[in-house]
Design brief:
The protein is of the alpha/beta class. It has one domain (2-361): Aldolase class I (TIM Barrel), CATH 3.20.20. It is 40% helix and 15% strand. It has 13 helices and 13 strands. It has helices at 2-12, 16-31, 36-44, 77-82, 126-133, 156-169, 195-211, 228-240, 255-258, 279-296, 311-320, 329-334, 338-352, and strands spanning 53-55, 58-60, 64-66, 87-93, 106-109, 114-117, 142-146, 176-180, 218-222, 245-248, 275-276, 301-305, 324-327. It has an 8-stranded parallel β-barrel with strand order 3-4-7-8-9-10-12-13, surrounded by 4 helices. It has a 3-stranded antiparallel sheet with strand order 5-6-11. The longest helix has 18 residues, at 279-296. The protein is globular. Bound molecules: flavin mononucleotide. Residues 67-69, 72, 91-92, 106, 115, 117, 119, 145, 180, 221, 250-251, 277-278, 281, 305-308, 327-330 line the site of flavin mononucleotide.
């Protein structure tokens, strides 16, 4: 109530790019203050065995994670814990540093409950982020989102080497990897979600994995609007290269189609660079989750992402086949109590369905 009626209207008056480091950095500081940090986390964290998820030997205290992009440089791990998340994904991290595209990086579409995101893979680069995290003792499991440096000459084999550099740098940090396939700069401009290009990338990742003796699970993060034949080919490659899961999904990048996913299209200008998050992605990502789950019968694990604002949204994706959930936009719009509310609602929904653990609901439509 206080957040929606008092704090949010003030935050909306400040550009999103200005507010993000203030809120996230402030939250991280508060999380570290003795007594206050623990008191906040006591309030925001919902600790219940019914919400615990065990996946690939990783213990997630609840199924709701902070998606890649909020904590690009690994600065806000305590923030994620304090505000109730069950895990977080840091990055996307690229081989070399990149200062980001010209601003604005974030545009709010308030009526649509969506954001237009155009950071362009801003990153401090693998080495710097690694040294920040090297001695951290995080409360939560966290994933490493791996991408390639956004530079015109980082294409083709160089781009693949850049992905591999990040992958190897983080060999002893993080619980899982996500390879972000929405990096368009291959030599001929085709994205890494194209099966031939993806095959080359996965061959090199597989080699690197053997070299560094990594047993961490690997997820691929895909766009929500891929054609079914492409998704089928990606699934095949996952089986072939022992990729454990998919993160479904990233932003909607297709500017021609973007307006069709918005309830108030007049709020959006297709000439704005960047991809759409939030409500615009909800349905299309859930449909993609359902498709992959039914096709693979659970042999590929899914992290569901896109337009989750409430417990009902999260439960819908879990029932469609997601084992875990990630979100950003719902948290940005609805504030610090979002994850607590989602987890409390999940407990109610589980009870209604007569289930004792959230994993029992996966794929149970
Ligand atoms: C501010 C912001 C930055 C993002 N940056 C990244 C990124 O660096 N890497 C990535 O894989 N996804 C990134 N995303 C996409 C999100 O991780 C997520 O897939 C997408 O926003 C859909 O979820 P949501 O509707 O809950 O925001 C970003 C999203 C937002 C809102």
């Amino acid at each position: 109530m206080i957040y929606n009626h008092l704090i949010r209207p003030i935050l909306y008056k400040i550009p999103a790019d200005t507010i993000h480091p203030i809120v996230a950095g402030g939250g991280e500081l508060i999380a570290k203050i003795p007594l206050i940090g623990p008191a906040l986390s006591n309030y925001y964290r919902v600790d219940n065995p019914a919400l615990r998820v065990q996946l690939f030997g990783i213990n997630f205290p609840n199924p709701i994670g902070l998606s890649a992009g909020f904590d690009k440089d690994g600065r806000y791990l305590d923030f994620a814990h304090t505000f109730g998340f069950g895990f977080s994904e840091i990055g996307s991290i690229t081989g070399e540093a990149y200062a980001g595209n010209p601003k604005p990086w974030t545009r709010r579409l308030v009526k649509n409950q969506a954001l237009v995101i155009n950071y362009g893979l801003k990153s401090e680069g693998a080495e710097k982020i690694y040294s920040r995290l090297r001695n951290k003792k995080p409360f939560l499991p966290f994933g490493i989102s791996v991408a390639k440096t956004n530079r015109v000459d980082c294409v083709g084999e160089k781009a693949i080497a850049d992905y591999v550099k990040v992958f190897k740098t983080f060999k002893d940090i993080g619980s899982y990897y996500t390879i972000n396939l929405s990096c368009p700069n291959t030599a001929d401009g085709t994205p890494f979600s194209e099966p031939e290009t993806l095959k080359r990338l996965l061959m090199e990742i597989d080699k690197a994995r053997t070299e560094i003796h990594s047993s961490k699970p690997i997820f691929l993060k895909i766009n929500p609007d891929l054609e079914k034949t492409k998704i089928d080919q990606i699934i095949e490659l996952c089986h072939r290269f022992n990729i454990q899961g998919l993160v479904i999904s990233n932003l909607i990048k297709d500017h021609q189609k973007a307006k069709t996913y918005l309830k108030y299209p007049e709020e959006y200008n297709p000439s704005w660079p960047g991809g759409l998050s939030g409500l615009a992605v909800r349905q299309i990502s859930t449909e993609c989750i359902r498709y992959v789950y039914q096709k693979t019968q659970g042999s590929i694990k899914i992290i569901g992402c896109g337009g989750v604002f409430t417990g009902d949204d999260a439960y819908e994706k879990i029932k469609a086949g997601a084992s875990l959930i990630e979100l950003i936009t719902g948290f940005i719009f609805n504030g610090p109590a979002t994850i607590r509310k989602i987890n409390l609602r999940l407990l109610k929904l589980l009870k209604q369905d007569g289930l004792t653990n959230i994993s029992q609901a996966v794929g149970q439509e």
